[in-house]
Design brief:
The structure is a homodimer of 243-residue chains.
Chain A: H1 11-25, H2 37-44, H3 48-60, E1 64-67, E2 73-76, H4 81-98, H5 103-124, H6 127-140, H7 147-163, H8 168-180, H9 182-185, H10 192-210, H11 214-240
Antiparallel strand pairs in A: 1-2
Helix pairs in contact in A: 1-3, 2-3, 4-8, 5-7, 5-8, 5-11, 6-7, 6-10, 7-8, 10-11
Chain A binds a DNA duplex (30 and 30 nucleotides) through α3.
Chain lengths: 243, 243
DNA sequence: AAGATTTTATTTGTCTGACATTTAAAAGTC
DNA sequence: GACTTTTAAATGTCAGACAAATAAAATCTT
């Protein structure tokens, strides 16, 4: 692990990159302890605060964890699916909100990915997952539910569907797409009529999963996508010419 | 933005989270300048190094960028698709390598997602993207190509397919899945026979895209997935009883 | 000798104060 | 008015110190 002090980039960024490369290449393995901050400052010929800034960068990416005390230090972290989820959700959410991604584009991506899970989910869904979906549908039918709570329940429903595929890699990839849509969905005002429609489709999706009918799940997801996009269009139109 | 100094977590982590929340909630908007490090240390009642560690954490997530000099400072960064790609690839790659995800699981996820793009790509692919795919197929046919280079070309081919869907959100999500598979794919030794088979399928996929035949693209992707999994199984079997 | 307690050493977390470097704006010069 | 110089503000880096946590070693007690 070497750095070039003449490079224009910040030393702490260079050091972080050097350690990151070592982790990715397998030179440093999971749970291995890095040299102490003092040793690293010697090794890279920089001060301790600079080393610390580098380590904090890596900690922010969940690449290392630190522990105080004797026999403490910085350890290479095994990135868990949990860690990866939350990072992905943060990034995806900001990516959509900051880059003026159209509702249609996001919606298309989300439903395309979700439909990719549908056949697997139809095969493998557990009764627990089906029960979760039914419970969320029940919650969605409560008339006093706020729009935000309705959307949150929608996310839970769809995550259960995705988890039904029983493939953690798929679940991880989808987490970003499904959750990142939520702020966009929150812009929609759901009328009693539109909620009824969505709940009906949710019920049909749950039915299809119960029957393990992949084609029907797919068809209903297509319907749901179309309906969702229509709702968004209505909102956009009302914005153009308000009452 | 407030922090609680009594909390067990590191101050720099708390400060980073407070600023992160402010960005996510929209309290801080893109290109807005954060207070200077000195001002932040006053505000949070901590020292400048602690503030700096917090800022480096945010910089590692591409949430802020910094600029030196007068009228410099830390600015809220617009997360680009580029930034998000590279972060996602790093995370996905480590996630797979560190968590003993089986080849089958990763492969299933990757092809499921890719098949989600196929119908859109069949509709929208440009002739440029088709040309890229043909060029990569040509490269793959070079007999002197190393296994690593063959895999790299494979990634380029499949990314072109995904980009054909003309949906940046989909491309972003897929980048992780496709690229993260590469280290796993690199474990496969491609014989002349298996390369021939893969190239043949690539050609048929390109043909199908040229004809805008979504069903055929899908079918060929299924074939390719099956063949890839078979190759991996052979490798695993050879490991069990080596020559 | 075994177990409980205290001490000690190590390591990260934090602070203070300083200097270097970069950069844009202000001041000065022709 | 255009160019040059100066200045001020901000981040980047350094050195040295102390605080706090923690595990291991040493000591004490029974």
């Amino acid at each position: 692990m070497k750095i070039d002090p003449r490079k224009p980039a910040d030393l702490s960024a260079q050091i972080a990159q050097a350690i990151r490369d070592a982790i990715i290449s397998g030179e440093l393995i999971v749970d291995e302890r890095l040299p102490s901050e003092a040793e690293l400052s010697d090794q890279f010929q920089v001060s301790r605060p600079t080393v610390r800034e580098a380590l904090k960068r890596l900690a922010a990416q969940s690449l290392i964890r630190t522990q105080r005390g004797a026999s403490g230090g910085a350890f290479v972290n095994r990135i868990s699916f949990e860690d990866a989820y939350s990072q992905q959700i943060t990034t995806s959410t900001l990516l959509l909100s900051m880059n003026a991604v159209s509702f249609d584009t996001a919606c298309e991506a989300r439903f395309s990915l979700e439909r990719a899970c549908a056949p697997l989910s139809a095969q493998r869904r557990t009764s627990d997952q089906l029960a979760t979906m039914r419970a969320e549908i029940f919650r969605q039918a409560q008339p006093r539910l706020s729009d935000e709570a309705f959307c949150a329940s929608d996310v839970t429903f769809h995550r259960a569907l995705v988890d039904g595929a029983d493939n953690p890699v798929l679940s991880y990839q989808l987490a970003g797409a499904v959750e990142a849509m939520q702020p966009l969905m929150n812009m929609i005002t759901f009328t009693a009529r539109s909620r009824e429609q969505i709940i009906s489709l949710h019920n049909q999706i749950a039915d299809a999963l119960e029957e393990r009918d992949a084609a029907k799940v797919d068809a209903k997801l297509v319907e749901l996508e179309e309906y969702t996009r229509k709702l968004a269009q209505d909102v956009a139109q009302q914005h153009r010419k308000p009452a």
